[in-house]
Write a structure and sequence with these properties.
It contains 13 helices and 30 strands. It is α/β, with parallel strands linked by helices.
């Protein structure tokens, strides 16, 4: 990024004719609007967004935010009176979606964002939830290969373009989608490079990762710089599905940690601006002298980035950003979005509105210090209940991954929950798998929770099973010897146990490769259906005591 020098001007009175005036260097203004981690939230999430209380910044308040109808209105408002604009995204637009979008394999979300005028989007890890061929269908259109066409109109695919600079199909050696796209604004070219995180293969199912290579983020971007400069491009924007963990409010960044910090520092100095995502955090940061932004999650924010381009150097000379809240209780509803949602809702409502049961208090997915959550307990219990009988698997214990828990189960005024509520908490539609493991393999599986020490994945466990772990011990030795117990009896390392997990875990998802060694697999119902049945049979449900997982320090 070139910075313009400050200029001092003086007025001179000359007797002779003045020399011709020197024209100021012209500039071009560009407004970039950005989102990330939309996850199919066509309707506003019940959680809204948490921000500092304007009247007392030591406290937090919840502001109603999100919704495609209101976001579309805000995008139009932010584009108004700006000659040059572009709307972009940093991944995870689909996947882990509520029922209204997931029931139709996220076709409604693709249509909604296309209708809003989204132009470019990097791929995120959740874009691969149903595999690369399904992601290509999202781009190109056509009916689902199994469920065929279920929407109110034929699916035409995205009008925006996916970018995938670091995702390579191993069979061809070519990127899954173009690595970048160049857009011109009043004759000045601006390159947008799109990519996902290097660790994508470790957080999607092995089946979805097959045939794909996810390359290093910084190395990928830096290798493209000579090519872009050879095409006369000086202004470079990176859309990356990786992020950080800031301090401060949604429009601040007094400090930030996480993977994005090191990645930005490794970027070639030719990179001017970074739009990030993945961590579901809001921030406007300066990292290594470059503007880095993120717009929270679920469509609660739109980032408005105002860029100044120098016509002579063709580079970005200044950039500033503002995270604008999509205030769902203030903004008008966009009529086109309302019609789109209504069309899909007519098809989804008969299923989504079915009463599931009730809760006496919110079942939160937020874990305690040991890694156990109220929602995780109930989900694991439901999966055990669905597979306990000999005919359905003969399970004695169930484990589920915390990443599969996507939304708290929050009671309405009467405590009731619908199938749509249940589905929002378990949106991946994973099938349950019951398999046989030795006691020693169960312990080895639990040790794999710390494969990534910076981001441990503590499995949620069903009632009757408990264990303790020691954070001071090295990797591979954290589960305290003899602490594993099942229904009051010590788990025998040589004993055989029928264990239920979801099919994502059973294939080694999240790095739990021990589960691929399980034998005598028996497939069961889908996870959301198991939870729905559990609520029907056991409501009202209350949070269970958090005593299944114990942390010794």
């Amino acid at each position: 990024m070139r910075r313009l020098p400050a200029l001092a001007f003086a007025a001179l009175t000359l007797i002779a004719s003045p020399p011709p005036a020197v024209a100021q260097q012209p500039t071009v203004s560009l407004r970039i609007l950005a989102i990330n981690d939309f996850h199919g939230y066509l309707r506003a999430p019940s959680t809204g967004i948490r921000i500092a209380d304007p009247s007392d910044r030591t406290k937090k308040i919840t502001v109603p935010a999100g919704g495609a109808e209101q976001m579309a209105s805000l995008v139009k408002e932010l584009e108004h009176d700006h000659k040059n604009t572009i709307f972009v995204a940093a991944g995870d637009l689909i996947g882990a979606s509520p029922l209204l979008s997931a029931m139709f394999h996220d076709e409604p979300t693709i249509e909604s964002l296309s209708m809003m005028g989204l132009a470019l989007a990097s791929v995120g890890n959740h874009e691969f939830d149903e595999g690369k061929d399904e992601l290509k269908r999202m781009q190109n259109g056509g009916c689902h290969p199994v469920d065929t066409c279920r929407g109110p109109q034929p699916f035409k695919g995205a009008t925006f373009h996916y970018l995938a600079a670091s995702t390579v199909e191993t069979a061809t050696g070519k990127t899954l989608f173009p690595p970048y796209e160049i857009r011109e604004f009043e004759g000045i070219p601006v390159a947008f490079i799109g990519l996902t995180l290097k660790g994508t293969s470790g957080i999607i199912s092995p089946a979805s990762a097959a045939g794909l290579e996810f390359r290093d983020e910084a190395e990928t971007v830096n290798a493209l710089i000579p090519e872009l400069k050879g095409r006369g491009v000086e202004a470079i924007v990176v859309l990356i599905h990786e992020g950080g963990y800031p301090t401060g409010d949604y429009n601040e960044c007094p400090a930030i940690s996480g993977a994005i910090v090191d990645i930005v520092k490794k970027f070639d100095r030719a990179v001017d601006l970074v739009i990030s995502g993945h961590t579901h955090q809001p921030y406007v940061c300066d990292i290594d002298g470059r503007l880095v932004t993120s717009a929270d999650k679920y469509g609660t924010l739109v980032t408005a980035i105002d860029v100044t381009l120098d016509a002579k150097s063709r580079d970005i000379v200044s950039a500033k950003a503002d995270n604008v809240i999509v205030r769902s209780n203030v903004l008008a509803r966009d009529a086109e979005q309302t019609a789109l949602i209504a069309a899909y809702d007519r098809l989804a409502a008969p299923l989504g509105n079915r009463r599931a049961g009730s809760v006496t208090a919110t079942l939160s997915r937020v874990p305690n210090e040991a890694g156990e959550s109220a929602l995780g307990d109930i989900v694991a219990d439901a999966q055990l209940a669905a597979t306990t009988s000999e005919a359905k698997g003969g399970a004695v214990v169930a484990f589920t991954n915390p990443g599969g828990l996507r939304a708290d189960l929050t009671a309405k005024d009467d405590g009731s929950l619908t199938y749509a509520d249940i589905f929002a908490s378990q949106p991946f539609r994973n099938q349950l798998v019951t398999l046989t493991l030795k006691g020693s393999q169960i312990r080895a599986m639990l040790e794999q929770q710390w494969l990534d020490p910076k981001r441990p994945r503590i499995l949620q466990v069903s009632k009757g099973f408990s264990y303790a772990w020691d954070d001071s011990k090295p990797f591979g030795e954290r589960v305290i010897a003899g602490s594993m117990s099942l229904n009051g009896a010590a788990v025998d390392p040589a004993g055989s146990y029928r264990v239920t997990v979801n099919n994502y875990l059973s294939t080694g998802g999240d790095g739990f490769t021990v589960l691929t060694e399980g034998t005598a697999q028996q497939f069961g119902v889908y996870d959301a259906d198991a939870l729905y049945a559990y609520f029907q049979a056991n409501s009202p449900i209350s949070p269970a005591p958090s005593d299944r997982i114990r942390r010794s320090n």
